[in-house]
Write a structure and sequence with these properties.
By secondary structure, the protein is of the alpha+beta class. The chain is about 35% helix and about 20% strand. The strands form three sheets. A six-stranded mixed sheet has the order 2-1-10-9-4-3.
Length: about 260
Amino acid sequence: NEPTPTPSTSLLDWYSIAGNISADVLILLIRFCSLTLIGFIESAAKFIFGTPSIDTWQFKPFPPRYSTKSNVKYVQSGADGYKDEIDVPATLKSSNFPLKPTELVQKCKHIITTDFGSLDESVLAADFRFVAPVVGPLGKREFLAAFSSFKLREALPDVCENSWNFHVDPLEPNRVWWFNRAEGTHSAPLVFPPPKVLPPTHKKVEWPVSAQSMCFDAEGKCYQLTVGYSCDRQIGNTGGLGALFGLLYAVGKPL
């Protein structure tokens, strides 16, 4: 026969059970609060910045709408023996994209003068999206709201993009690429993150050489903008970061 538990033993058992239940409830409560907080932060971050780059696989990149890959022509190798250089004019002749390379480059430069559509959103297609190394993808409405709120040109009134080599991608003939090596002085308030304001630091910002691109539809509207892809992180004082993240790093307010 099993011994009958004493009242003191039964009481200890009840205390143990109650303690375990309380611990489980507390853990569940902490987990619930943590997940709720994380969800709120993620939602706020996506609202301001779009989908972060760690979520790259959660969206489908736009497939090329035009391509010349089946008709690539190469420059005949000379004394140097190099034979993998694309003959750009010859390759682009096989393109079925309705706009000529010179027209695309002109449209690209025009969109830049509109502050990437902030001053004239008609230059952006309805399915436009912005994709940067960290920020994006952002749809048209989200991009225009975020980009115009930062007021970058007001914060760096002397900014110069130092752009060069605007050219059409010979393999994706509706896409314009270009490089820049921007610099400017943070001499006025910067709105970031809205509505917070970062007072002027009067620090000169020197970005690294960066690659940018715009993709165009048949109507000549930009449906994708990529900016801030650093080519050499040794250049400048932004820690190798491009665009806004590079600016914040250079003025001592890295994210």
